[in-house]
Design brief:
The structure is a single chain. The strands form two sheets. Strands 1-2-3 form a three-stranded antiparallel sheet, with no helix packed on it. β4 and β5 form a beta hairpin. The protein is mainly alpha-helical. It has a domain of 67 residues. 44% of the residues lie in helices and 9% in strands.
Length: 205
């Protein structure tokens, strides 16, 4: 770039104007534990827990996502455990759709009267309003997932694979540190210093 500007300067008679690109800071909003009610306010029959689940395959106790549907174009899977097991079982029971011609069995796990779910932003906004956390977007759940995985003791490599984050730098953008983390860090340092000070006093005696 410097060589190019040095070449253009005598030709233009003045230094060319270089406009630096403006970068917006990465969004850091997440769904905190005390705001988790927003997920419970969602109509289960009308809104999937993730848009990708509408294109996922359920098999052998796992949720599989083909690479063609993932953001980084890599296939991955997530084991179905805990609340997901109960959710999937309820959705299996809801596959039967009553129509004028009889009862049909939907091939979709999440649907609206047997039809694929194309849009649910309105349902999400309503759920957030009922839960008292307006302004949250569905994608904030990925930041919440990154934070909870690390703080529950899951290694970064496993957390990245579960969430489909390709690089450490991308994962760090989602693993957001907030005021609670900073306070917890200071409390741990304070406790450590107090313990070390007591050791020194005991040695002096």
């Amino acid at each position: 770039m410097r060589r190019l500007l040095a070449f253009l300067d005598p030709l233009l008679g003045c230094a060319p104007l270089v406009i630096k690109p403006h970068y917006r800071p990465a969004r850091q909003t997440q769904i905190r534990d005390d705001e988790a009610d927003s997920r419970e306010q969602l109509p289960e029959s009308g809104t999937p827990p993730s848009p990708l689940l509408a294109r996922a395959v359920l098999r052998d106790g796992n949720i599989y996502l083909r690479g063609v549907y993932s953001k980084n174009k890599k296939a991955y899977y997530v084991p179905i455990v805990g609340e997901l097991v109960q959710l999937i079982e309820r959705r299996k029971e809801a596959r039967s759709i009553k129509t004028d011609s009889g009862v049909l069995l939907s091939s979709l796990v999440f649907h609206r009267a047997g039809k694929p779910i194309a849009e649910f932003r309105k349902s999400w906004a309503t759920a957030c309003k009922k839960a008292g956390c307006e302004g949250r977007i569905f994608h904030d759940l990925r930041r919440s997932a990154a934070r909870q995985l690390i703080r529950s003791g899951v290694t970064k490599d496993v957390a990245r694979q579960l969430g489909g984050w390709k690089t450490d730098s991308m994962f760090s953008r989602y693993n957001v540190c907030d005021e609670e983390d900073l306070r917890d860090a200071i409390e741990k340092v304070t406790k450590y210093n107090e313990t070390e000070s007591q050791k020194i006093v005991q040695i002096a005696k």
